[in-house]
């Protein structure tokens, strides 16, 4: 068994190969994965069954809960979804090797800003075993390398998926099979978080407590969000039926999603506050008026409610208690909407629509790496672009700096 | 005296104001700084004299070195340079509030990606007192807020500069004077690095050891580079005179710059290796052949030299020993240049020109925040853009997600 440090070292070497692969090679690796998944379908389901048998015991012993058990199950539909996801990814443009801009610094001195992959990325995810293929494929498409740590409940399913990916990479001329790696144990997380020498980014996909733990225990940049405290503000000018419709959607369509609304702020001048409250209750929503704590992510059909004096009070509340994720204003007042857009310091700020729209697929990114509440690198729903950085390429013709310092030459700085 | 935590808290509140200021207001603040600097010129020089008197004692006691003492001195030229810098900055486009792209998700559902400032930024710089105004002005122009920690040797000069900035902000309607703050003591650094609740980014401007210390002691993202181990590779096809010219420029034009070359790699088939070595020595460069350590930043007219088998060996050496800063290939072989560009994992990769070109001003960014060897957020020379992130603004017309989940509506995802 290799040490995690060795795995990371080899992944870093693999990155020096994968970082310059062209789109065709990366797509070839993805289509090889599809082929092998189809070939090994029955083995995949067998491996998953093994995990389910073990998980059933844990469920009966009360060591895992029912939702965890349910998420673990892989059926034909989920596998078809995975294959569809891979096919969609193949169609996407290469996120790397794109010339972002080109500039003439002087005659015969051309600067290009070119998108590149980042490096070795640590991904920590919980029990959903389809996660492995989804993440590995995003990593491959973007030319990065990764060490993935899956939940121990899914060990058999993750292992066969990892074997499939390794096999697909081996069958792709020019690829390095050390690009994608799987580690298992809880102790591996701690070690992974210390490997800032090899890892350039950590992506946690899982519970808020997992993300929080990771953010607090590593110096490696973390892309993610620890919580989704999303707000809807009903301005005094909001249309009643639209407001009701949007709030019900944002709270009940998928209550455990991170972009579901948790707190409803209503302008005290809104004329049908009581009606709105009773109508929401009719839709099965439990209303908690003026709770002690406005920073709870209920993940359920529960909604905190606060009456506020005006749009500025709503903005202040959101900047104080929100998590910088997604906040929406329902209003017909252009000035208030403008104020809300500019003064709410969140990654997604919306007007007159449901908070549930803030999502990589709905935003049209084709793929979603995650949702970030960071203030650097990538913010909001993150597509493949979030797995890239850039390098500068400067193409000279025997130019030296001294000529410019001495004034013999001057820069033109002309966009090309 | 306020605690540093209070200062950070107030700066965070100030950010909620500065983040939405328009370019005119921010430029007004900058021109107010120019006016007050001109008014207080003699007081500035008096404050600087106080620092110089104290520093002279420290110099005589051997507690600071001569270069530190020299950098501390502010003369008419430097002050004029500062004013010129402010005037140039006023002319630059607002880096925030720019619509980066706009997309129709569906009819009546428009998504905009808009550049925004980041938040409160901690800046730690050493004895150059003109640094304060340079950094504060970049922070103001980009709508961010900052806590600046200057060297204690420059306490009087930094204080008057901070007073000038505060006064200028107070005179600018709509600004918050808590946007720019100065702290003094060494203990403040440690405290600053713990304030991840309030600070979103740390920018160290100073020695490699300072940057290293900061990177190792904070969870806040750090923008900078701990060292500049830059390489020039002389390919077998390089032109002799051009190579000599470029290496001399990269090593001697400003040997202590971070983008000066430290290691020269020469292809074993290059036909005038001995001539090149003796010509470099004639230019006052000390050559160290095959040193034990290839990761030393000499900061002087000293150059490590290694003969390599081919371009791939050069690339491997650079990826192993380099700091990901700036590396240049001198060659007339298109394939080797292409290989070098794609396979060297550095923020700036150059062909046939001096490493000294990798710099924000030379790259035409108008201003330079610093040079970053990070793999996330900002890489290479960083202009004002590196002080920004973005938010998504989604303008709806009463749209709910359920309609799309149920297939009643479909996304158009059309670029606008």
What does this protein look like?
The first copy, chain A, is α/β, with parallel strands linked by helices. The first copy, chain A, folds into two domains: 243 residues, Aldehyde Dehydrogenase, Chain A, domain 1 (3-Layer(aba) Sandwich), CATH 3.40.605; 128 residues, Aldehyde Dehydrogenase, Chain A, domain 2, CATH 3.40.309.10. Chain A has 14 helices and 16 strands. In chain A, the strands form four sheets. Chain A has a six-stranded parallel β-sheet, sandwiched between helices. The first copy, chain A, has a four-stranded antiparallel β-sheet with strand order 15-2-1-16, with no helix packed on it. In chain A, strand 1 and strand 2 form a beta hairpin. In chain A, helix 2 packs antiparallel against helix 5. The radius of gyration of chain A is 25 Å and the shape is globular. The mean pLDDT of chain A is 96. The interface between A and B is large, with 70 and 69 residues.
- Largest interface chains and counts: A-B, 70 and 69 residues
Structural class of chain A: alpha/beta
Low-confidence stretches of chain A: none
Strand order of the largest sheet of chain A: 9-10-8-7-11-12
End-to-end Cα distance of chain A, whole Å, is 52 Å
Strand content of chain A: 15-25%
* Strand segment count of chain A: 16
Would you tell me the overall average pLDDT of chain A?
96
- Give the topology string of chain A: H per helix, E per strand: HHHHHEEEHEHEHEHEHEHEEHEHEEEEHE
Percent of residues in helices of chain A comes to 40-55%
- Main sheet of chain A? 6 strands, parallel
Number of helical runs of chain A?
14
């Amino acid at each position: 068994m290799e040490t995690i440090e060795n795995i990371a070292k080899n992944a870093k070497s693999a990155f020096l190969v994968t970082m310059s692969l062209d789109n065709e090679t990366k797509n070839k690796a993805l289509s090889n994965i599809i082929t092998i998944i189809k070939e090994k379908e029955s083995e995949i389901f067998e491996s998953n069954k093994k995990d389910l048998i073990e998980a059933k015991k844990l469920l009966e012993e009360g060591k895992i809960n029912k939702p965890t058990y349910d998420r673990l199950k892989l059926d034909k539909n989920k596998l078809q979804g995975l294959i569809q996801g891979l096919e969609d990814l193949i169609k996407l443009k290469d996120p790397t090797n794109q010339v972002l801009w080109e500039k003439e610094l002087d005659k015969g001195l051309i600067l290009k800003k070119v998108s590149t992959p980042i490096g070795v990325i640590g991904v920590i995810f919980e029990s959903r075993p389809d996660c492995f293929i989804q993440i590995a494929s995003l990593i491959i498409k973007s030319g990065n390398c990764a060490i993935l740590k899956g939940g121990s409940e899914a060990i058999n399913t993750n292992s066969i998926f990892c074997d499939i990916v390794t096999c697909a990479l081996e069958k792709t001329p020019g690829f390095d099979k050390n690009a994608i790696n799987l580690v298992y144990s809880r102790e591996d997380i701690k070690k992974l978080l210390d490997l800032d020498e090899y890892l350039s980014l950590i992506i946690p996909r899982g519970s808020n407590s997992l993300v929080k733990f990771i953010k607090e225990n590593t110096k490696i940049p973390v892309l993610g969000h620890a919580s989704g405290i999303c707000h809807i503000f009903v301005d005094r000018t909001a249309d009643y039926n639209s407001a009701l419709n949007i709030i019900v959607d944002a709270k009940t369509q998928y209550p455990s999603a991170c972009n579901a609304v948790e707190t409803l702020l209503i302008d005290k001048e809104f004329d049908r506050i009581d009606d709105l409250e009773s109508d929401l209750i009719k839709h099965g929503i439990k209303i908690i008026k003026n709770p002690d704590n406005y920073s709870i992510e209920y993940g359920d059909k529960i909604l905190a409610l606060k009456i506020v004096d005006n749009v500025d009070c709503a903005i202040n509340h959101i900047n104080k208690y929100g998590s910088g994720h997604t906040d929406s204003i329902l209003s017909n007042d252009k000035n208030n909407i403008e104020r809300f857009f500019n003064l709410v310091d969140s990654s997604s700020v919306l007007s007159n629509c449901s908070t549930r729209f803030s999502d990589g697929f709905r935003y049209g990114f084709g793929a979603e790496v995650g949702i970030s509440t960071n203030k650097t690198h990538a913010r909001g729903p993150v597509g493949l672009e979030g797995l890239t950085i850039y390098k500068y390429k400067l193409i000279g013709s025997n130019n030296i700096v001294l000529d410019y310092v001495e004034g013999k030459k001057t820069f033109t700085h002309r966009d090309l």
